[in-house]
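User: Hey, quick favor. My workstation is busy. Could you predict this chain's structure for me?
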Amino acid sequence: LGPLIGTRTWGGVVGINDWGPLIDGGTTNVPQFATADTNGHWAIEGHGVDPDIEVELDVASALAGRDPQLDRAITEIRKQIAAEPVALPARPADPVKAPADMR
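Assistant: No problem, here it is.
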């Protein structure tokens, strides 16, 4: 669909399930599923996913209401749309919903 923009993910992909509330209102989460590749090795776990374009999300930008990762993503998708425009299909005729004997 497009390039991955941001920073490397943290590398923990083992999924957890919430096993419902405890008596004190807390919950227990149990790591129990992950992704393996076709060679039988854990995929992604431990390293994370590297972005195609690295853009940090710094605190100052966030506090100022800016998101440099989103801004870069918008820039990149606009470039992709300009380079590879897609023609929208023509609008179909309106459907005829009246019964056949009333047309």
